[in-house]
Amino acid sequence: MHADLKSLHFSMEGLKEMYPVIIALDPPPGKGWEWAFDIASKLKGKVKAFKVGWPLLLEGNRVEELKEYGPVIADLKLADIGATMIKVVKRVEADAFIAHAFVGYEGALKELREELEGKKLYLVASMSHPGSVHFIDKHWREFLLLAYLVADGLVAPATRTSVLREIRKYWSKEIISPGIGAQGARPCEALRAGADYEIVGRSVTLSEDPAKTLEEMYSCLKG
Amino acid sequence: MHADLKSLHFSMEGLKEMYPVIIALDPPPGKGWEWAFDIASKLKGKVKAFKVGWPLLLEGNRVEELKEYGPVIADLKLADIGATMIKVVKRVEADAFIAHAFVGYEGALKELREELEGKKLYLVASMSHPGSVHFIDKHWREFLLLAYLVADGLVAPATRTSVLREIRKYWSKEIISPGIGAQGARPCEALRAGADYEIVGRSVTLSEDPAKTLEEMYSCLKG
């Protein structure tokens, strides 16, 4: 169900080196949309998508403009009642949204799924930080059952590939994986464990030359 | 540990009818901050606090201005890794924040608590929608243990007072309770079950005369 890395890279070369990477555009203090547009312009066509979250949205609701550079995933970690999540997604022009599975179905993800007709919904199956084991990781099997009902993809961490590998056994659709670089996982580590795309933030976005850094990080695809 | 309703109302009369209520300013389609300021101006001094969430923040980051009308609780349902939650709360000038307990301690709530030094942190112990029972409600006892470490208050639903009553047995600090009105619970129902403040949204904010509606709804305090 998951292409091996060499064939993935081969097909990517045909697509002008599009890496199996999603870039997280979380701005450092004092930075906002101009910072995000600058990085996105340098990576246009080279990555699968751009991921934005609340830190950037608090600097203004300009997702529509970012879509000029590639698909946009709104990583809002939605975890509220359905009526509130709907009020949020109606106001954000993203191609895909990330919500928490733990918020449950009735009165929450059921209503969100209906509202997102035609857009992609990812659910968080497990997270990249240590505290994910306290509650979230205890439920990933039940989250998968819920995901079969409502989700197009899952989020599972590069920092705990044992969980990622387990999830991949039961989930044939898309898996995207955060935790590469600043959070400790190495490039290609999640891809090798079954992820379709790795989510990279600070390692690329805070580097002098984002495109060059990306290319260097993903030399692992050729290994 | 919790004052009875008559004495609560008596002390409120001394304070010019301040109701034990927090007003949720979630804007209907097409409305934004001017709508919120208008309602807040009509309820200034009559309610404990105003609660804002992502739907309003997507219309602009103007929490600072709202503080002219009363304390502001940012109900962001924070549920991300620590580094991201910190980027969010640094950008929102609220007096208090609501986060999910579900996200766990290390790498998440621990870091958030340190960042919020001097501000209030509420954790969600249970939610008002039916789907809360799938995962969240299974863990409220463990959430309380976590709350003892990091929280000033808890959020527990008016729609399931059995859970609220149980939580009150083990938690002496503040409990705020959503679900009154549009979501089905009646005014004073959560107060009677042990909440300190009820969170009211649409019933008041969509009414012709918010102050009069509030007064009518909370005639239950005199009963």
From TrEMBL, chains A, B:
Keyword terms, alphabetized: Decarboxylase, Lyase, Pyrimidine biosynthesis
Single GO cellular component term: cytosol
Source organism superkingdom: Archaea
Enzyme Commission number: 4.1.1.23
Record InterPro entries: Aldolase_TIM, OMPdecase, OMPdecase_AS, OMPdeCOase_dom, RibuloseP-bd_barrel
Catalyzed chemical reaction(s): orotidine 5'-phosphate + H(+) = UMP + CO2
Family: Belongs to the OMP decarboxylase family.
NCBIfam families assigned to the protein according to its UniProt record, in alphabetical order: pyrF
The name this protein goes by in its record: Orotidine 5'-phosphate decarboxylase
